[in-house]
């Protein structure tokens, strides 16, 4: 299945500017603040709805390797090693994150791949919680 995810997308910045996308997003955000069209807290999704409105029928599908999702839940268990190795972007949407506990019910290979690229915060402000 495909879907639009406001947190993971690729854009052509020139087309963004020419279509005045920022202005359109600001419009829907201001209107929502006045009339509460789709919610005002992060649980109701403050970024997803205006992007869905602005990009309705104005997008191109990309190869699924550019958004390998559901790694933070049971759905992510079905990915095989070859697919994960070819992935371009790994997305831990779901309850289990590789930097948190618990790690059961998570694709072990995906966790191994995340740890390979993990760079600790040099300031020490942020640390792993597991």
Could you characterize what this model shows?
There is one protein chain. Helix 2 packs across helix 3. This protein is mainly α and 130 residues long. The mean pLDDT is 83. It has helices spanning 13-18, 21-35, 48-54, 81-86, 108-117. It has five helices and no strands.
Query: How many strand elements?
Result: 0
- Give start-end ranges of low-pLDDT stretches: none
Which class of secondary structure composition applies to the elements?
A: mainly alpha
Name the helix and strand elements from N-terminus to C-terminus, one letter apiece: HHHHH
Could you outline the blueprint of secondary structure elements for this entry?
Elements: H1 13-18, H2 21-35, H3 48-54, H4 81-86, H5 108-117
Helix pairs in contact: 2-3
Offer a quick outline of the entry.
With 130 residues, the chain is mainly alpha-helical.
Provide tags for this entry.
mainly alpha, 130 residues
